Amino acid sequence: MPESEGAAQSETGAAATVPAVELSGITKRFPGVVANHDVNLRVRPGTVHAVVGENGAGKSTLMKTLYGMHKPDEGTITLNGEQVVLHSPADAIARGVGMVHQHFMLADNLTVLENVVLGAEPRRWGGFGLNRAAARTKIREIGKQYGLEVDPDEMVERLGVGDRQRVEIIKVLYRGARILVLDEPTAVLVPQEVDALFEALAVLKGQGLSIIFISHKLDEVRSVADDITVMRRGTTVATADPKTVSSRELAELMVGSELPSPQTSDSTVTDRPVLELSGINLIDGARHLLRDVTLTIHAGEVLGLAGVEGNGQAELVESIMGMRSVDSGTIKLTGDDITSWSTRRRREAGCGYIPEDRHRHGLILDAPLWENRILGHQSRKPNVRGPLVDRAGARTDTERIVREYDVRTPSIDVLANSLSGGNQQKLIVGREMSGNPKLLIAAHPTRGVDIGAQTAIWDLLRTARAEGLAVLLISADLDELIGLSDSLTVILRGELVAEVDPSTVTPEQLGSAMTGAGEAA
Amino acid sequence: MNADTVRRVGLSLAAPALAIILSLAITSAVLAAAGNDPFDTFKQMIEYAKEPRTTAMIINGSVTYYFAALAVAFGFRMNLFNIGVDGQYRLAAMLAAAVGGAVSLPPILHVGLILLVAVLVGGLWAAVAGLLKVYRGVSEVISTIMLNSITTALIAFLLTTDKLAVQAEGSNNIGTKPIPASGQVPGIGLVPDSPLKVYGLIVLAVIVGFLYWFVIEHSRFGFDLRAAGRNEEAAVASGVNVKRMILISMAVSGGIAGLVGMPQLLGSSYTYSLDFPAGIGFTGIAIALLGRNTALGVAIGALLFGFLDNSSQILDLEGVPKEIVMITQGVIVLSVVIAYELVRRYRIVAQQREVGRRLSEPPAPAAGNDKTPQGAQA
Questions:
Q1: Are B367 and A31 in contact (CB < 8 Å)?
Q2: In B, which residues are within 8 Å of A375 by CB distance?
Q3: Which of A286, A429, A516, B151 could form a disulfide with B87 if both were Cys (CB 3.0 to 4.6 A apart)?
Q4: Distance between CA atoms of A132 and A122, rounded to whole angstroms?
Q5: Structural domain of residue B78, as residue ranges?
Q6: What is the mean pLDDT of residues B119-137?
Q7: Residue B214 included in any domain
Q8: Can you give the CATH number for the domain in which B296 is found?
Q9: What angle, rounded to 10 degrees, do the helices at B140-158 and B107-136 form?
Q10: Topology of domain A1-96+179-259, per CATH?
């Protein structure tokens, strides 16, 4: 964790220094909805300022305002004491505001250097050539100055998540940003990578840059931020001092109510195996994506799979769902060998799947909710009758899911992309729980959803477990993993390397096991 | 709900209306720039279209276009761009004509056989592109374009007097052996007072259009197809065998394409000769875009293109270059693409706002129950 060196000095000098960013009285209306009203935010130069709030609290709208993506209806933006009007992100960049998006915006098939200079290329030969040498020098300088070292000539597709994020930050610094907005930067990182990020932020801060840090993860916010501003329902409701406020207090400010925790109650594990994998190997060219994976999940058991992203989790899930065919090994579902079954047959046999990326794998965004309810269940009642789609049946059952799973929507005819992430996810969970599944694969089930939906989804997973489902849980949120799982397995480079007891392991120990650095508890 | 329906219908009409207004405006500007009176020109076209003979020609042209556009649209629904409709229908028409001229069968069977050959040839020819895509990862855009060229060469090779062709009586033209009366489809006197009858296969066009709508909108197969077209990865995760869907939909698209030449072949020319119309497949792409890949929309688009093609014949006589119509057609397609995208985006944003508005209770202005230990910021 970084030393908050800036904190002591700025605590006293706060009144004297000109704030790097001052947003006052910002109101942004969209027809029919006020996304931000009377928002006030003051970021002292050379500090990390955290903005916390639930999804939908208006953080993104506010950051879009600061990044010039839209103009506020009321209120002023003051950067380093100068009141400005930002017409576009280009304006914001010109004034030293840089944004690192939650979802990386990198071209995989280009090198680090090419990604960094994209849109701001140093020219030569009268503007026709890309001056790689100049770019390379500058990137190296940035790397040295801020401790963000990445090989400029490496292809981005070969980089890990932490390095990709570093490239995103370099991209912004390359354009001369002095004010950095980081949108949920730790969502995709493991603890060790988070530490590395925070060290980098400490260096940036030490060099006088100001950082606005948007996050859900309150422990991290408390350790990295110098100031915290809490948003709720479109406005700033409080500021807090990270040194004195507890995570619980912060969360209560965000939600305005009591807090959930992911603990599971009594064990419901039975001795009836539902999913049995034995000796699964998946090979792509020379790479072993999965090596001798053997595991069993029983009815009523939640098996947590911990691992740094990209260590074979996605491939394992796709193998179980039949989206990839394994090179050797067998997959059994309640005793039946399903290794050669198609995805559809596996689904019909009772495999439910909450995919990691709901937009890519779980939904048809431009289709209405009731059509999305059919997805994955195209061959089963109540969605179809013989070879025809049963619209009435599907619609009625969608109404049921919306009701029972608390999907907040005005109607089942709205397109899936109109719903918030949490509600989309509840719809998916409800859908996958329909049709009596035996096995539920939940990959990052609460990623990017707000606390309210998170609690609801945890409850649903617990209910599923109590009803005797076997659940394979994959998550980057180690608290969630430890809290919900009956047993935990660590995957590293496609191999199951350790089993840990979720009742005794700490997130730090689990994090070490995931990187292969230390011994698990 | 009722207001919603009105809104929805209004929005779905907004895009085509916008597109037509835009293209009329641009065409008028071009006409005016060339020194012609736009209103007078349009009036002449409409007057000419009202003549019974022209009306029948418009309908006949539209029937042909309809098959071509449906073939393209079927592929589009699966996110496949079948540029090869042109080659598929020409090869299908040529071989079907050759078979039809070579056999003699009872009337209905004869027609049935010719149609079957056309559908099979079109479907198999398109399936080549499907196979290449599934097993070799070749983009169907590239392979179908190449298959078009291969078709041209193949027809040139086969349509010679020592192979499938015969010399037409009293002309230099060569074509397949004429199809006897049992294989011909009589016209329908749909337009009163018209000396020209409407192709009998208009009935088939209506049937295929209905089937298209029914299969896409109401069948499981159609659901899988649309799912794969809109989000292939989600479709795979939901259990759709996308490779099989690609093969099937390429083949179906080609099968429909096989029908493109049939109204003309069975309704008027009875032979595939050197002057058999070519290029209809490309017009079909434009019409599929115009009709947004729906059975009804494509029908309207086909009629519009049929109207423009035929009513423009009068323009040359009136001293207006009829090429103006090609400008109009191009402008319509561009306008439609733009207008639909604009309306689509507007719709998504409007709906997101609507959902946001309906779900969020108006934020309590004073937010009285806020626990703010350090006070709200100044």
A1: no
A2: 227, 234-235, 238
A3: B151
A4: 8
A5: 14-28+37-351
A6: 95
A7: yes
A8: 1.10.3470
A9: 140
A10: Rossmann fold (3.40.50)
The answer to whether position B116 is within a domain reads yes
pLDDT, one tens digit per residue, over B321-336 is 888 888 888 888 888 8
How far apart are alpha carbons A284 and A318 in whole angstroms? 14
A262-350+437-521 sits in which CATH class?
alpha beta
**Average of per-residue pLDDT values in chain A:** 82
Which residues of B are less than 8 Å from A356 in CB distance?
none
Q: Are A31 and B353 an interchain contact pair (Cβ–Cβ within 8 Å)?
A: yes
Q: Which pLDDT belongs to residue B34?
A: 84
Instruction: Choose the most confident range, by mean pLDDT, from A122-126, A486-490, B66-70, B101-105.
Output: B66-70
Whether residue A344 lies within 8 A of chain B, CB to CB, comes out as yes
* Mutant choice from A33, A44, A69 vs B, greatest count of B C-beta within 10 A: A33
Average pLDDT of span B63-91: 95
Model pLDDT for residues A417-457, shown as the tens digit of each residue: 888 777 888 899 889 988 788 999 999 888 767 777 788 88
Residue contact B238–A343, C-beta within 8 A:
yes
pLDDT band of B2, cuts 50, 70, 90: low
- Separation CA B146–CA B261 (nearest Å): 20
A482's tokens = 């430890």
Which of B355, B371, B374 is facing A414, going by the closest CB pair? B355
Picking from B230, B357, B376, the nearest residue to A236 by CB comes out as B376
DSSP 8-state code for residue B308: H
What residue segments make up the domains of chain A, in order of their start? 1-96+179-259, 106-177, 262-350+437-521, 363-435
> Which residues are CB-contacts of A473 (< 8 A; sequence separation ≥ 6)?
A302, A303, A304, A305, A442, A445, A461, A480, A481, A484, A485
pLDDT at residue A187 is higher than 90: no
**Window A:478-517, CB contacts with B under 8 Å:** none
Backbone dihedral angles phi then psi of residue A415, each to the nearest 5 degrees:
-75, 150
Nearest C-alpha in B relative to A357: B234
Put simply, the answer to whether A323 touches B348 (Cβ < 8 Å) is no
ipTM: 0.80
Nearest partner of A236 among A245, A247, A224, A227, judged by Cα: A227
Residue A382: asked if its preceding bond is cis (omega within 30°), the reply is: yes
Q: pLDDT tens digits, residue range A287-342?
A: 788 989 999 999 988 999 988 777 888 889 999 999 988 898 999 989 899 888 99
Interface test with A, best of B2, B216, B220 (most A CBs within 10 A): B220
User: Taking an 8 Å Cβ-Cβ cutoff, which residues of chain B contact chain A?
Assistant: 4, 218-224, 226-227, 230-231, 233-241, 348, 351-360, 363, 367, 369-378
Share of chain B above pLDDT 70, in %: 94
Long-range contacts of B215-220 (CB under 8 A, 24+ apart): B216/B74, B216/B77, B216/B295, B218/A388, B218/A389, B218/A391, B219/A387, B219/A388, B219/A389, B220/A378, B220/A379, B220/A384, B220/A387, B220/A388, B220/A389
Structure tokens at B325: 């119509």
B156 vs A147, higher pLDDT: B156
All residues of chain B having their beta carbon less than 8 Å from the beta carbon of residue A417 are: 348, 352
- Out of B233, B241, B353, the one facing A361 most closely (by C-beta) is B233
pLDDT at B280 over 60: yes
